[in-house]
Amino acid sequence: MKTQTLTPSEVRSRGFQALNRELGTVGFLKFMHQFERGRGDYSRERHALVDNLGLAAIMAGIKRNRAKGRSPVA
Fold first, then answer.
1. Range(s) of the domain holding residue 46
2. By the 8 A CB rule, do 39 and 45 touch?
3. Do 21 and 45 belong together in one domain?
4. Which residues fall within 8 angstroms of residue 14, CB to CB, at 6 or more apart?
C-alpha cells in the first residue's frame, strides 16, 4: 500500500476500518470518544473563572475538594 497516493479521506477511512477491526465496535467507539472536540471558547471561559481568583481562594477550593474526596483540581 502506497500511502502517498491516498487522499486524506481515504487515510481516515482506512484508519477507522483498522481500529474497528482491531478493537471491535465498542473499543473503537471508546477510542473515538477520547477525541471529542467539545464546544465553546475554553480560553475565554477559563479567564472568566480564574483571572480574579487569588491564592487564598484557590487554596480554599483545593481544601474543599480534598475534604469531599475529589481531585484537588476538580
1. 40-74
2. no
3. no
4. 6
70 and 45, same structural domain?
A: yes
CA distance 26 to 53: 42
State how far the alpha carbon of 56 is from the alpha carbons of 20, 47, 52, 61, in Å. 49, 18, 11, 9
Judge whether 43 and 50 are in contact, CB under 8 Å. no
pTM above 0.85, yes or no: no
Predicted confidence (pLDDT) per residue in 39-72, tens digit: 888 899 889 988 888 899 989 988 998 898 887 6
| Pair 1, 26 in one domain | yes
44 and 59 both lie in a single domain: yes
Q: Are residues 45 and 71 in the same domain?
A: yes
Residue 1 has pLDDT above 80, yes or no: no
